[in-house]
Amino acid sequence: MKFLSVFLLAFMVTACSNNDSPEQVAEKFISAIYKGDSDTVINLINFPKDDDNKGMDMRMFVKSKMQEALQRGKQFADEHGGLDKVESELVKYTNDEKNMAIVSTTVIFKDATKKEEKNISVIKADGKWLINLK
């Protein structure tokens, strides 16, 4: 009975938590930037299929170009005691289908410094919310 209760509780917590929302993707993306986590940043970006790339791996290209920005983000976080949390505001959907949105976040560092990251564009592609760089 205890096992069943624990299982049901875990299931309810998992089912009730929205693990793929515009807010969560924006929060994960901003957190990854300030932690210098390039793999997470790249995995959260929407890379539309484009035949014009002629075999070029856009993920590797963007990752190499983002290294300096990620280093600056991590350095800023380190100068302020590290990242504490990222909070998002209400989502503004930009189309009727509600598969594109703009999210604004507030980044809070451990020394209580706050920084606003506004107008983070997200898109729902293949059933997942991702960062839209277009």
In short:
The chain is 43% helix and 25% strand.
Radius of gyration: 17 Å
Write down the secondary-structure element order.
HHHHEEEEE
From the N-terminal CA to the C-terminal CA, the straight-line distance is: 52 Å
Reported for the largest beta sheet, the result is: 5 strands, antiparallel
Strand content: 25-35%
Overall, the morphology is: flat
Q: Count of helices?
A: 4
Helical fraction: 40-55%
- Report mean pLDDT, rounded to a whole number: 84
Structural class: alpha+beta
Annotation, overall tally of beta strands: 5
Low-confidence stretches: 1-18
Description:
The chain is of the alpha+beta class and 134 residues long. It has helices at residues 2-16, 22-35, 38-43, 58-79; strands spanning 83-88, 92-93, 100-109, 114-125, 128-131. Strands 1, 2, 3, 4 and 5 form a five-stranded antiparallel sheet that branches. Strand 3 (100-109) and strand 4 form a beta hairpin. Helix 2 crosses helix 4. The longest helix is centred in the middle third of the chain and has 22 residues, at 58-79.
